[in-house]
Design goal:
Length: about 100
């Protein structure tokens, strides 16, 4: 599951995703953010903060609060801090998502 936003005028993008099947997830499900986790986050501005890159430090959580398999709705919250040498520190607090999949 991946959600993203892309601004073509500034070439900025933000994406967040879970690289795991949600078939057997019990709600609430909490995913930790790290380089080896099933939860990924990426922000591209003047720097690329994709959390799988070796030079990006990342920490945070993604919590799935609602998973309606019948109506295909997923909702939850997330927070993260991303840093990279030579780039600003990015802090995301009280992020929310609510989408159909």
């Amino acid at each position: 599951i991946v959600a993203y936003d892309f601004n073509s005028q500034t070439n900025e993008q933000f994406s967040i995703g879970v690289r795991d099947s949600l078939n057997f997830v019990s709600i609430p499900a909490i995913y930790n953010l790290s380089r080896t986790s099933l939860f990924g986050i990426s922000i591209k501005k003047s720097c690329d903060y994709f959390n799988q890159l070796n030079d990006v430090q990342s920490e945070g959580t993604l919590t799935i609060l609602k998973l309606d398999r019948t109506n295909k709705i997923i909702a939850g919250t997330f927070n993260a801090t991303l840093s990279k040498d030579g780039c600003d520190i990015i802090k995301i607090a009280e992020g929310r998502f609510d989408m159909k999949y």
